[in-house]
Amino acid sequence: MRRRPNQTPVPHPSDAYDPVSPPGVLRSEGELRKLMSGQGKADTAQLAEVLGRISSSMADYLEGGRHIDVVLNPVEILSAVDAALQEAEGRPSPWPDGADMRTFFIHGLYEELIQQPSNLFQVRIFPDGTERYIPLDKATWKACLQRLRDQIVGSGVRIGTRGRKRAG
After folding, report:
1. Residue ranges for the chain with pLDDT beneath 50
2. Residue 103: left (phi > 0), alpha (psi -120 to 50), or beta?
3. Which residue in 148, 163, 157, 161 sits closest to 52, CA to CA?
4. Burial level of 24, CB count in 10 A (0-12/13-18/19+)?
5. Could you count the other beta carbons within 10 Å of the beta carbon of residue 21?
6. Is the Cβ–Cβ distance between 51 and 141 less than 8 Å?
7. How far is it, in rounded angstroms, from Cα 26 to Cα 129?
8. What is the C-alpha to C-alpha distance for residues 11 and 95, in angstroms, rounded to an integer?
9. CA distance 61 to 38
10. Cα–Cα distance for residue pair 42/19, rounded to 1 Å
11. Measured distance CA(142)–CA(148) in Å, rounded
12. Which tens digits make up the pLDDT trace of 88-104?
């Protein structure tokens, strides 16, 4: 067991034979590089939390559009999510900067989405036993965007209608 300053002894994954490291434990710098390049597996345990943060950010952005009379429909929202998925896969955005207010607003939603990973961190335990915050890995980010897309398609409900009931 390794002792952390001012804490009780905490078992460390390297203290016992474990052919498969528990989630959050990196066994080498190479594993970290693989994780950050998007070659690792998505951390599905984080999806709900990350999705909640993204949905909240999107709702705030979309609510701002109401003040300028721009309310996006689900297809327009999906186009921004699809563009963010393409960006996450290394392809450039298909969106122009915006010839009109609506296109400009959709592009703004796309920009809001692709900035999210720089604000999201995950805790990982490094081979030396230290816990460090690292940016959200690409595989988890892509899985989160895909789940967001699936939820929008599956629900058919507009995002950004906090507290409002859907007409039906």
Report:
1. 1-21, 158, 160-168
2. alpha
3. 148
4. middle
5. 14
6. no
7. 9
8. 50
9. 27
10. 20
11. 10
12. 988 887 766 667 888 88
Question: What is the model's pLDDT at position 56?
Answer: 93
Please enumerate in sequence order all residues whose Cβ is within 8 A of that of 158, keeping only pairs 6 or more positions apart, or say none.
Answer: 62, 71, 72, 73, 74, 77, 166
Q: Is 57 helix (H, G, I), strand (E, B) or coil?
A: helix
The pair of three-digit structure tokens given for residue 128, joined into one six-digit string: 């030396």
Residues 6+ positions from 23 with CB-CB distance below 8 Å: 43, 45
Estimate to the nearest angstrom the gap between the alpha carbon of 114 and the chain centroid. 9
pLDDT value of residue 48 = 87
CA distance 116 to 108: 13
What token pair was written down for 40?
Answer: 């690792």
DSSP class of residue 27 equals -
Angle in degrees, CA 111, 77, 63, rounded to 5: 80
For residue 2, give the DSSP letter: B
**What span, in angstroms and rounded, lies between the C-alpha atoms of 88 and 43?**
16
Q: What is the pLDDT at residue 27?
A: 65
Please report which helix (H) or strand (E) contains residue 77, including its range: helix 74-88
